[in-house]
Structure formats: structure tokens, C-alpha cells
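Lab notebook, bench 4. Still working through the backlog of constructs that have no structural model yet. Next entry is a single chain of 384 residues. Request: give me the C-alpha cells for it.
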Amino acid sequence: MGKYVYQQLYEELRHQITAGVLPLGGRLPSEREWARRFGVSRETVRQAIDQLRRDGLVESRQGSGTYVVRATPLVRTTHNSAALLGVIMPDLRWSLYRQLMQGIARQARQHDLAVLALVHEERMDYFDDAIRIVIEQGVVAALIVLPRNLRRFDTTRLDQAHIPYVLLSRDDPAVVCDKVVIDNVGIGTTATRLLLDAGQCTPIFIGPLDYRTAWDRLRGYREALAAAGLPCLSDQVLDTSDGNEPMLQKATRLLEGLLAKGFAFDGVVAFNDEHAATTVQCLVRHGVAIPESVKVVGVDDLELAASCVVPLTTIRLDGVQAGERAVELVWGRLRNPNAKPVIEYVPATVVQRQSCPGVVTVSERILEGGPTGDLESELVTKRR
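Model written out:
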């Protein structure tokens, strides 16, 4: 038996549960049956089932068998007697979400809070199920990263259950609550200003415009161009979204089309590091010198940013600090339910590498007087 086999089986069973193939409330086949069906040992099956049990997806009932009890993974941290803090997020694959969980868990321990964490994998049915679970489990408060393309967050169930909540990472401007979210407009503005400050005058934007996040970063890009008295032509916006074509493959095709058309650009504001790295690879392949002819800025500071053929200047988000602040906000809300809602922004720092110079910190912003109050932005530039 190898760990790789166990992980494969676990992933397959988990997929069958979350996809509804193994229905909620249904009894799983026996270990012997799973072993026969997948051609593995019973010990491998037992380890996979144990992981499903730790995820909260199944439970074993003595003398009866193992049953599916949840359609979304659940994780508890700290001891069971503590007050319970619910956390709902898309997944733990993206580094920012792992950082958020690290900060949340660390700060929750300071207040003797247990953590109930669930993932929705950007699916509305999983998200609805997660909201139901945190209510059923009696959490004292919830920290929530909304699904990517949720049009409107209906807070009715949480409000009726008198559960305070903090929005994390992604904002819904219509929701009045405490928030620690990414200032995507500010990030778009900052990335563009880095290029403009470096002397570029015709930067393009590349990203998937079926994401609200990308639209907000595009808005920041456009605002920075307008403030500099520069136009934003249709050729300067490359939309990599949707269709049957993989996103990064489409990014390459659009860039090559722009080069073939002869449209002259000297900078790229990329939606994220993956788009930025794809851009760099495409341009270098076509003989474009980076950063001499074209400068590129990404977002996220993933590992690939430093290892790219031309190391990427990128905007790093401090998820650990954001997670800690979210816990502090909800802790304050529990002690003072009538306080004005506060909005804070995930700290963002530009990491200087070869693709574009400059170091900028996007300041935190506080919303006074509710979500319709004025947001005053401040960019603090630090030169090393």
C-alpha cells in the first residue's frame, strides 16, 4: 500500500460525495467491496475513509456502517468545548486562502475560539450547504469568502440566526457588515501607475472579464490611464474569459494576435501572476525584450513569479494578517453588536523584480458611516 494509492482513492470517494454520486444520508459500501472495486487493500480503503471522516463528510455508526453526512468538507481546529467560529471559503489550494486560514486559526486561539471550516469550491449549492451547516452547528460568528460569481449575497438566514459575519477577500458592496477584502480597484490602479511611473504610455490589460475581480482591476487600470490623460482603446483590453479554450491558452492567442496586428504596447497589467508569466513567455518567444521594450506587472506573488524566465514584479497580498484582522473584527462585533461596520483592505505590497521597477504599498482603508460612505485612497510609495 502506498500513500499515492490512498490519496487517489480518497480523492475519488470525495468527488463522488460532493458530486452527489454517493448521496447525503446514504450508506457507503463495505471496506471489502471498495477494495474489490478499486483493486486495493482494505488498509488503503480504511485510510481513505478515515480522511473522509476527518473532513466531516462521513461518520461511522457501530453495527450499521459508514454514512455520508455532509456534501462539503468540514474541518475543526482546537478543542470541542470552545465557542465555534465558522469559516467558509472556496478552497485551500490558492496560497491566499491558506494564508487566511493560518491567520484565522492563530488569532482564534488567542480568543479560545474553535474553527469550523468549510469549502464551497465556487459552487452555489456547496455554498448554500455551508451556510446551513454553520447555522446548524451553532457558530457564534462566520468569516466568509463569497463564491466568485455570486451576484448578490442573501444574508437572510444568518441574520435570522443572529450570527454576525465578516466578508473576506471578495466584497459585495450591497451587504452591510464588517469586511476585510481585496482592494482590486486599487491594485489595478497601482499596477498601472507602476508602468506609467516607469515611462510606459501604452500599457494593455489582460485578464478574464467573467470574474468580478478582473472587472475591478480593469476599472483601476482605466482610472489610472484617465488620471494620466491617456486613452484606453479597445485593443488595449484582452479578455481571456470563458469559451471552450483554456484561459492561458487564450491569453497567448490574443497576445500573438495583437503582435501580428502591429499594435504597439509597452506595458502589461496582468490579472494575476499566471497571466503575467504567460505574457512574458509569449513575448520573449516572439523576440520582445522585457523589460527594455515591454514591462509587466502581475498579482499574487506565487512561486512562479520569482522563477519566471524574466522574474515578475508583482503585488503580494498578506493573507495571514488579513485573517488575523478578520477574527479581531468579528470578536469586536460580538462584544459590541451595534458598532459601525468597518471595511479594511488586505495589505498589498509590490515586490520588485526584473519585469518592472518600483515598490508601492496600498494603504488600509476604513469605511466610516456604512457602505455608502466615501472611501479615500492613499498610495504610499517607498523607494529602496
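Notes after review: The first helix runs from residue 3 to 18. The radius of gyration is 23 Å. Flag for follow-up if needed.
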